[in-house]
Each structure stands twice: as structure tokens, then as C-alpha cells.
Amino acid sequence: MSALNQALCAALERRQALFAELHAQGTDCYRLFHGSQEGAPGLTVDRYGPQLLVQSFHQPLERDVLLQLLDSCQQALATPLLAVYNDRSQPNSRIDRRDPVYQATPEALADLVGHEWGLNYRVRARHAGQDPLLFLDLRNARGWVKRHSAGKSVLNLFAYTCGVGLCAAAGGARSVTNLDFAEGNLAVGRENAALNPDLAPMRFVASDYFPAIRQFAGLPVARRHGQRLPDYPRLGAEQFDLVFLDPPAWARSAFGTVDLLRDYQSLLKPALLATAEGGVLVCCNNLAKVELDEWREQVLRCASKSGRPVREAEVLTPAADFPSHDGRHPLKTLVLHL
After folding, report:
1. For 155, what's the count of Cα atoms within 13 Å in the CB-facing half-sphere?
2. 231: which of 66, 175, 205, 313 lies 20 to 30 Å off by Cα?
3. Angle at alpha carbon of residue 124, lines to 87 and 149, rounded to 5°
4. CA atoms of 128 and 141, how far apart (whole Å)
5. CB-based contacts of 52: which residues, under 8 Å, 6+ apart?
6. 122 with 133: CB under 8 angstroms?
7. Cα–Cα dist 77/74, whole Å
8. How far, in Å, are 174, 209, 246, 276, 298 from residue 240 at the CA level?
9. Cα–Cα nearest to 112, from 136, 139, 83
10. 31-62, pLDDT tens digit by residue?
11. Which pLDDT tens digit goes with each residue over 116-139?
């Protein structure tokens, strides 16, 4: 047995109790091997329902190694899995769609369905984007939203494929608004909604974050250096009982720049103002180089200066399938009770 397969088998053994817990709650999407913390930096092995997704970010894996990994995972879970291998060792972690190492079957690359917290999610190993359609490390945060959404109006910002919105709807939210700039992301969100037909309908808004959140917050949409702005959806001022803010690490548009390292405040302030009095703002920072304590102080200071002081701040950490030896998880989630 190779050293890599030994490390995988050890990780699978450590997760046996977690697997039982996840299956009991209606979840079959989770991380099987978190290489950066379990002996193989640059390698991840994830389960998405019937699919096994192996991704390497530093160097390609050999085919026989992949077959060993697949066999070990199937034995540990006592279920057959459809394997897909994404070599992402190219610049900017782009997927090598030629897949010269392991040719996935058409069945493995087809549209599949995975489950989390008893909800159905679209699973698609290769699509127009680079990342999986469901970020597994956010599972605990989605579960928190599901448990705390009853009767509330919910705003899901940077919604991606709308998993948070789906959990809010499943939790009995009065209304759910999903906001994302990419129509393709929202299209998957609509697929997820269709896969859960018993839930109340959700609202989908395709817009850049800055003009949308500033309108919700009752703030003007500012011009940048006198430039003419692109067209954007006109929205009325509105406050929400629960706001979820999960921005990417960095992005730039004609309306502003998302920069989790240098300028989280420009994202946070209008989101605070769009949160109703006595409401909750859940905010995330997935940049590994940002320390939790420093970021939390920054967030609390910004809230106070914005006239929305925080009564209580709760930290949500990823589940045990995302281990961290030093407790410094890249994904940091704060629940701010205003």
C-alpha cells in the first residue's frame, strides 16, 4: 500500500463516527481526505452523493494511485462510487479538462444528485466554472441557517448556487432572496430549488453586489471616478431579518473591489445596514492568511462605527471532515446578533 493510500485509510477510519452522524441527518456530501492536514498537501477527496471527486492542486496523480484511492473509499463507505479526477495543477488551479490520467465514465460526469441536511443538490463534476457546485466546508453554517430561519426574511449574498437560501427555505423562512452576479450560478440555484419542490419559492436576483446591497441599505450607488456605470437592476430599500455574507477572496467590477484581506469593511457596512434591527448577520472570510481574532475585532469595530453594535458574536467552525491541527481554519464564520 502506498504512503498516500495509507494516509487516506487513516483519515477514513477517523471519520467513521462522523459518517454515521452525517448519514443519519440526511447528508452524503462530505470530505473524505483533507490533504493539507492529513499528510498530502494539494490533494482533496470528496464525496458528492454517488460521486467520488478527487482533485490534485500540486501535481497530477498516477492512474494506479487513483484506483487505489477509489477502492479504499468504496470499502470504507460500503457503497460503489462514480469516480471523477480533476487535475488542477495548472496555473490558477484550472481544471485540465483533457483528463489524460483517468477518463471518467459518462455516468460519473452526468448530472447527479447529492444530499445535505435532508435536501437535494445538483452534483456536476465538470461544468463552466472551476469549483464544485457545493462548498462542503460551509455545511455547518448552512445547517445553522436551516435551524434559525423560521418566519424570517433572508438575504443570501454572493449566493453562488444558493445552498444557504435552500436551507433557509427548508427552515421555514418567510421569504428568501438569493443575490449573485452570475446568471449561471443562479441557474444551478434554480435547479436546486426544482430538486426540492416541497419548499416555498425563492427569489433570484442577478446583480453585482455593490449596487444591490447599497440599494437594499438605502444608500446611493456611487460612480467610480466619474465613470459611467454599467446598467444594474433597480431595487428598493429593504431590510432583512437574516443576512448571509460569504464573499470570494478577491474580485473587481466597475462598481467596486472585493478584497477580504484589505477592505472587508466596504462589504460589511452596507450588509449591516440591510439587516433589520434585532436581526442577524452571518459573515464569512475564507482567506487563510486572515486570523480569526484580528478579523473579528475588525468586524465588531466596523459594526459599532456603522451604528449597528453587535450584542453577541458566535463563531461557527467547519465540521470534523475539515480538520485543522492548530485550529486556524481558512474558513471563518461569525454570527452577529445585532
Report:
1. 25
2. 175
3. 120
4. 26
5. 32, 45, 46, 70, 73, 74, 81, 82, 83, 84
6. yes
7. 5
8. 10, 16, 16, 5, 23
9. 83
10. 999 999 999 999 999 999 999 999 999 999 99
11. 999 999 999 999 999 999 999 999
